[in-house]
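Figure 3 (text version): structure tokens given as input.
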């Protein structure tokens, strides 16, 4: 465990970059109803209903020591 935690203390080296990888799953949603446009003295009105369209996988790779 200590060897894994020690990786954060290594100096920045271009030949051995330290990268962080994250792949969160995000739900995709759509608005099933069209918003009512704004009118004089009335703001635009939106419905809180949504339709699920399945998950979307996003990939993120960051090299924090390089900025």
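Below: residues designed for each position.
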């Amino acid at each position: 465990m200590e060897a894994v935690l020690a990786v954060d203390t290594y100096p920045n080296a271009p030949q051995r970059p330290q990268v962080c990888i994250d792949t969160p799953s995000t739900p995709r949603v759509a608005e099933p109803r069209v918003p009512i446009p704004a009118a004089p003295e009335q703001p635009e009105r939106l419905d809180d209903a949504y339709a699920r369209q399945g998950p979307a996988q996003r990939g993120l790779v960051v090299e924090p020591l390089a900025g």
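The mean pLDDT is 86.
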